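Key result, reporting period 2: structure in, sequence out.
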């Protein structure tokens, strides 16, 4: 009987240890979130309505980025996107979809564009749009397949994969 109690106590302590380790790991992941880096000479910040009009109504050739500061995928994508823009000597219009000046009507316009050009059912970010000079529209959603930003940062392999995708997306 004493031996059984000792086994049960050991299992309880082991379970509590695993639980505590899990909770600490989740907290560390949440506190180590990199900062949203949308301040770059390659990122142009105009009013969301102006940027959306250029992209949707005017089909103005350019590169457009949509995301927000608390989006883990956005935080992971922006530095890679910035490096690729720098490498290709290009700039992108950047819209914070959670900013005070981003209105619900802006979201409706963006969501309609998103659904039309991605065939997805619902808007998700980060969302990059490239409108080429010939009017062709190319898009990129998220980071890379298999990356779960709230749980882990991208691996070097995933970053390399994203760089290649973005390079192909924004080249002329």
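The corresponding designed sequence is given below.
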């Amino acid at each position: 009987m004493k031996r059984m109690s000792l086994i049960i106590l050991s299992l309880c302590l082991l379970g509590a240890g695993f639980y505590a380790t899990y909770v600490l790991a989740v907290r560390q992941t949440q506190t180590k979130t990199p900062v949203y880096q949308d301040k770059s000479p390659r990122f142009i910040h105009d009013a969301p309505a102006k940027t959306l009009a250029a992209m949707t109504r005017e089909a103005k050739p350019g590169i457009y980025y949509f995301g927000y500061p608390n989006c883990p995928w956005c935080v992971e994508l922006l530095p890679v996107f910035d490096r690729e823009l720098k490498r290709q000597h290009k700039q992108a219009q950047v819209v914070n979809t959670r900013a005070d000046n981003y209105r619900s009507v802006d979201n409706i316009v963006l969501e309609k564009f998103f659904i039309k050009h991605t065939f997805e059912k619902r808007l998700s970010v980060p969302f990059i749009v490239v409108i080429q000079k010939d009017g062709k529209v190319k898009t990129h959603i998220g980071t890379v397949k298999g990356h779960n930003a709230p749980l882990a940062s991208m691996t070097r392999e995933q970053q390399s994969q994203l760089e290649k995708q973005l390079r192909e997306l924004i080249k002329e």
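Residues 1-31 form one domain. The CA atoms of residues 53 and 112 lie 13 Å apart. This case is discussed further under Risks and Mitigation.
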